[in-house]
Amino acid sequence: MLLSLYEEKRANLVRFFAARLNSRAEAEDLVQDLYLRLTAMEPDATVENPSALLHRIGSNLMLDRLRSQKRSGARDHDWREANTIVLAGHEVADEPTADQVVEARQRLRALVEAVDDLPEKTRHAFQLHKLEGLSHAETARRMGISTSTVEKHISAALKALTRRLR
Amino acid sequence: MSRAAQHLQEAADWLTRLQRPEVDETDWLAFDAWLSEPGAQEAYDAIQAVDEEIFQRGSAIRGELSEPRRVAAKRTFSIDWRWLGGLGAAAAAAALAITVAPWGELLPQPDTLYTTAKGESRTLQLADGSRVDLNTDSHISVRLEKDARRVTVHEGQALFDVAHDGARPFLITAGDETVRVVGTRFDVRRRDGQLSVTVLRGLVEVSTDGEDTPIRLRPGQMLEHLEGASGVSVRAVAAEDQVGWRSGRLVYRDQPLGRIVSDMNHYFERPIRLEGENTATLRFSGVLIVDGQDAMLRRLTSLMPISATPTDDAIVLRGRPSASN
Prior knowledge:
The structure holds two protein chains of two kinds.
Chain A (H helix, E strand, L loop, with lengths): L1 H20 L2 H16 L10 H18 L9 H14 L7 H19 L3 H12 L4 H8 L3 H19 L1
Helix pairs in contact in A: 1-2, 1-3, 2-3, 5-8, 6-7, 6-8, 7-8
Chain B lengths: L2 H16 L6 H10 L5 H17 L1 H8 L2 H5 L16 H6 L4 E2 L10 E5 L6 E4 L5 E4 L4 E6 L4 E13 L8 E5 L2 E5 L3 E7 L2 E8 L2 E5 L6 E3 L3 E6 L6 E4 L2 H4 L6 E8 H9 L6 E4 L7 E7 L3 H11 L2 E5 L4 E5 L6
Parallel strand pairs in B: 6-7, 16-19
Antiparallel strand pairs in B: 1-2, 2-5, 3-4, 4-6, 5-6, 6-9, 7-8, 8-11, 9-10, 10-13, 11-12, 13-14, 15-17, 18-19
Helix pairs in contact in B: 1-3
């Protein structure tokens, strides 16, 4: 029964953990681990709220993941990417094509321009939270506004950026 | 608001809510229920993809946004970049946020001047994906053009990690030398009229004014040159030693005390002076951790036959008598 509910909720669990982990690929991994956990459980265990249980097991797996080295600092993605390109220029065979490099740069420019065009306070909240890595609460303190206002700014920024960039 | 816009807004609200530090099963159950609305999944997936991209490219975006030229864009102040070479440290520090627009409308990108104060270091993420670590008391300007990426080292030391771009060479001018690279990692130092280039990875080409053929440097090689003089020397070095400054370490192998004092004087306001005939030429090998000036001097005087005496405006180093024997 848990397994059939898992099948039904699988995609939404991935969506849920993608927000928490900032990575859909990592969320896919985690939800796969969750499946393995479930298959190891007693098949006829009675569970009061099975959907909540899926969430709980998934959350525990996520905490394990955040604590361990499994998470390789996605923040440094760009830095590593730049390094790879550098290496690729000299030794590695699968050098990105000039097109790919140009495309990546254009995309970065589009992102930066979209952020630049956000209304001032929205941009500031976005910068502090998304780029400087401050929490909603820290961002609120820094800007002297409430946490819920920070969340409104962040949400508005995400909506504006998505409309423009997708 | 259109239906699609409404969904996008709700999706953005949901994603933001899910990124609060405290999220429990109630959030999950409500989120799961919301996703069954038509159009919700597509909207959420679009928002999440953009959020993930921003997270992954955060440092690059941040680097672009924090470029001082954006801050300074409203100023109508411009100076000729060729004069910057002669700026003193104080003047250059004051010029931190000045947009330098050399030849008016002719160039698409203005020069951006980056500077660090004594004891300060900073990392720049350039728009092309290259990264520059700037050591203490250093001044460089950067201009990214369509056909070339140009950097001028006015003074100081910087470690470059250049993003590969075959169509746009990365050109660095330091005094009478030009360093040309395609994609690599190397250190450039310009202090007291002395230039040095040390390569950590890749290939670097250095041309000196008045010399016909450029010199190609490989990893582990350091080129040294006295500004205005003819000729350069190239030798093998432990390249990582040259960039120890990034982690707050100065690594010396058989270097004269004069060089060490010169380095230290770029970190601290209070000058260190050398007195006595041969003091400057005493040799030192070792690693100095850059912390406080007093602590550094204490270690130096215990490792070398010298003594340190504070005066009103400086600290004087002298060779101890035993050193001259």
